[in-house]
């Protein structure tokens, strides 16, 4: 058989090479297609409705118990909103990993992921679509909690702006957890492994970060000459009246300004900092103001003058007017979520270079 080659004209544009589906950029139509498919599967599931019902009942029960406890004990009801919102965040961090941590390896094990990969859908379409579906499912749980959050907010403890900002930040934090879970789902072959790794990541941001912050105290503690405002020892020895003066002495100083970022990345600290009302005394306000004041104190490090004079029985109310911490912490969490999404997109590219043993492609 003879093959003829037809030369192109000198000014003829080059013929473009065919583009692989995985090389195409993201498209809204592709993302929407994947998200709708994922959400339809969830809506058909009976377990989905049961989970929403259990969530509604649990959040409602805890909200009523908190409100009833403050009413019975005569406590400040402004604490109710902070406690209910913290409970919703904690419950969300438990549920959110299950919504995206099996989205990719679950489809790969079922043999349905390869069907999507051979279509015109790009890896970004598949990854972002699955992320939006998982995030939408997490937001459905947050929506179910809105009646109880509104009720607790009406008792006090926040402003309208603080309420809206807290909900937005809470929604973003749930999206970050979904993105992290999606990344682990693309990295591991087994759904159990990706779920465990996602929970470990959530625990690292919440509990392990606090433990590491405490464990770093010996490493950042030194003995230094500092200014102290306290009782002069000579006045006690002479039997005279106690008086406070400023003097220089040796003290152990913990430089928490070097490790405060371990607190800033904690989702509970981020949420508390967004909901805290500025201009209030942290000692006489709700949990948000107390957490924010403690975090800002760690960020500032040791004071210029150590206060050790407690002669006065009345303490002037202090106001925490430091810059907010939550933008830094939320930014760090969003970067982690973006990294998880980037890993998922990269691992969805075809053809595969290597596959884990026993992995089912189609």
Describe the structure.
The chain is mainly alpha-helical and 362 residues long. The protein has 2 domains: 216 residues, no CATH class; 90 residues, no CATH class. The protein is built from 14 helices and 3 strands. It has a 3-stranded mixed beta sheet. Helix 1 packs across helix 7 and helix 8 packs across helix 9. The N terminus is likely disordered.
Compact overview of the structure:
Keywords: Membrane, Transmembrane, Transmembrane helix. The protein has 362 residues and is mainly alpha-helical. The protein contains 14 helices and three strands.
Write the layout of secondary structure elements.
Blueprint: H1 28-44, H2 46-73, H3 79-95, H4 97-100, H5 105-110, H6 113-117, H7 123-154, H8 160-187, H9 191-215, E1 221-231, H10 233-237, E2 244-254, H11 261-264, H12 267-275, H13 287-300, E3 305-308, H14 326-347
Parallel strand pairs: 1-3
Antiparallel strand pairs: 1-2
Helix pairs in contact: 1-7, 2-3, 2-7, 3-7, 3-12, 7-8, 7-14, 8-9, 8-12, 8-14, 12-13, 12-14
Biased composition (Pro residues): 10-19
Region (Disordered): 1-21
Transmembrane segments: 50-73, 79-100, 131-154, 160-184, 196-220, 325-345
Number of helices: 14
Number of domains: 2
Approximate strand percentage: 5-15%
Largest sheet, strands/sense/barrel: 3 strands, mixed
Please report the distance between the alpha carbons of the first and last residues: 37 Å
Count all strands and give the number: 3
Helix percentage range:
55-70%
Order of helices and strands: HHHHHHHHHEHEHHHEH
What strand order characterises the main sheet? 2-1-3
Q: How would the global form be characterised?
A: globular
What would you report as the Rg, rounded to the nearest angstrom?
A: 28 Å
Transmembrane segments: 50-73, 79-100, 131-154, 160-184, 196-220, 325-345
Protein name: ABC transporter permease subunit
Keywords: Membrane, Transmembrane, Transmembrane helix
Biased composition (Pro residues): 10-19
């Amino acid at each position: 058989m003879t093959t003829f080659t037809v030369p192109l004209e000198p000014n003829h544009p080059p013929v473009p090479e065919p583009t692989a589906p995985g090389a195409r950029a993201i498209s809204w139509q592709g993302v929407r297609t994947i998200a709708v498919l994922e959400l339809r599967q969830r809506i058909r599931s009976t377990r989905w409705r049961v989970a929403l019902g259990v969530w509604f009942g649990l959040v409602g029960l805890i909200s009523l118990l908190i409100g009833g406890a403050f009413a019975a004990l005569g406590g400040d009801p402004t604490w109710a909103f902070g406690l209910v919102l913290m409970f919703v965040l904690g419950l969300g961090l438990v549920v959110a990993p299950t919504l995206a941590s099996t989205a990719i390896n679950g489809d790969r094990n079922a043999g349905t992921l390869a069907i999507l990969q051979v279509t015109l859908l790009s890896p970004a379409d598949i990854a972002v679509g699955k992320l939006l579906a998982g995030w939408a499912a997490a937001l459905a749980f947050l929506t179910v909690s809105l009646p109880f959050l509104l009720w607790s907010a009406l008792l006090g403890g926040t402003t309208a702006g603080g309420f809206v900002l807290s909900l937005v930040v809470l929604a973003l934090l749930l999206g970050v957890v979904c993105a992290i879970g999606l990344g682990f789902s693309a990295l591991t072959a087994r759904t159990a492994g990706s779920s465990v790794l996602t929970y470990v990541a959530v625990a690292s941001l919440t509990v392990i970060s606090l433990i590491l912050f405490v464990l770093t105290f010996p490493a950042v503690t030194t003995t230094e000459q500092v200014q102290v405002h306290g009782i002069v020892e000579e006045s006690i020895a002479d039997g005279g009246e106690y008086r406070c003066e400023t003097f220089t002495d040796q003290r152990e100083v913990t430089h928490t300004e070097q490790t405060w970022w371990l607190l800033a990345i904690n989702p509970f600290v981020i949420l508390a900092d967004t909901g805290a009302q500025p201009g209030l005394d942290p000692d006489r306000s709700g949990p948000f103001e107390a957490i924010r004041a403690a975090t800002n104190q760690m960020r500032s490090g040791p004071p210029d003058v150590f206060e050790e004079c407690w002669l006065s029985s009345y303490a002037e109310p202090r106001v925490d007017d430091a810059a907010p911490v939550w933008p830094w912490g939320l930014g760090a969490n969003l970067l982690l979520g973006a990294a998880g999404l980037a890993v998922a997109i990269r691992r969805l590219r075809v053809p595969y270079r290597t596959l884990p043993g026993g992995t089912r492609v189609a």
